[in-house]
Design brief:
Layout (H helix, E strand, L loop, with lengths): L1 E3 L20 H10 L1 E5 L4 E3 L8 E6 L2 E6 L5 E7 L4 E2 L1 H6 L6 E4 L3 E6 L1 H10 L1 H27 L2 H16 L9 E3 L2 H8 L3 H13 L3 E4 L2 E4 L2 H8 L4
Antiparallel strand pairs: 1-2, 2-9, 3-8, 4-7, 4-9, 5-6, 5-8, 10-12, 11-12
Helix pairs in contact: 3-4, 5-8, 6-7
């Protein structure tokens, strides 16, 4: 984890994807003046489940997993975050501890916005507070849907769904047609709600069927339409 000069909000390439687009130029300059930024390598923790929110986290670049540890000690990935996404807002709004952990699954840069700046925008900027409400609602809906799929979909369908989610997450405006991404097999299993061994075995089956190829941790999707067909089989 390395600290360096924080990127400026008004020149951030992901600014149009972020909640901070609701803030005017003056507010963005004020936020940029006080925020900090850190670089995280793969596997490093941005914040831990059960810790106190330090502020609002805004992903400048890279990929992050939001995960919880179940009663059996196994990790479950709730969602993935990329450039433009914000993290930690639920704990700030409710005044509670972080309900999940945020861990880098890719080299990433994350900005930390001070609590006073967050609450000032929430209290004084109607567009910002409305956008925050929409984010909370969307996150709740997506989490409920994922939990249902993990409970009722067979593992083959869950793998196809996880691969499509990773494909959408790793694609960027600079490379919108990218078909290759890297993910540790432990993380893929946690995203599917299964074990590393099961995820690896199912990947081998998909590879044998010509839907993908692998090289180390890298996965290249060869037949995304087939994956869509499998993922939506029980929808």
């Amino acid at each position: 984890m390395n600290r360096f000069s924080a990127p400026q909000c008004h020149s951030c390439p992901s600014r149009h994807l972020s909640l901070l687009q609701c803030c005017g130029p003056t507010a963005q300059d004020e936020i940029s003046l006080h925020k900090s930024a850190q670089h995280y390598a793969i596997g490093q923790t941005i914040f831990l489940e059960g810790s106190n929110p330090a502020g609002l986290y805004c992903v400048h670049s890279g990929m992050i997993k939001i995960s919880k540890i179940g009663g059996d000690g196994k990790e479950q990935i709730i969602r993935l975050a990329k450039g433009g996404d914000i993290l930690g807002y639920r704990g700030l709004v409710t005044g509670t501890l972080h309900s999940a952990s945020a861990i880098a699954i890719d080299d990433c840069i994350v900005c930390l916005i001070r609590k006073p700046d967050f609450f000032q925008q929430m209290n004084e900027n109607k567009e910002f507070s409305n956008g925050l409400l929409q984010l909370l609602s969307k996150a709740l809906g997506e989490t409920e849907e994922r939990m249902l799929h993990l409970a009722y979909k067979p593992v083959r369908e869950r793998l196809a769904e996880a691969l499509l989610l990773l494909l959408r997450t790793f694609r960027t405006e600079e490379n919108p047609e990218a078909l290759t991404f890297s993910i540790l097999r432990d993380d893929l299993g946690a995203l599917m709600g299964t074990t590393k061994e099961t995820a690896t075995r199912m990947l081998s089956e998909f590879k044998a069927e010509g839907m993908l190829s692998t090289h180390g941790s890298a996965i290249t999707i060869r037949d995304p339409l087939k994956l869509v067909s499998i993922a939506t089989q029980y929808d």
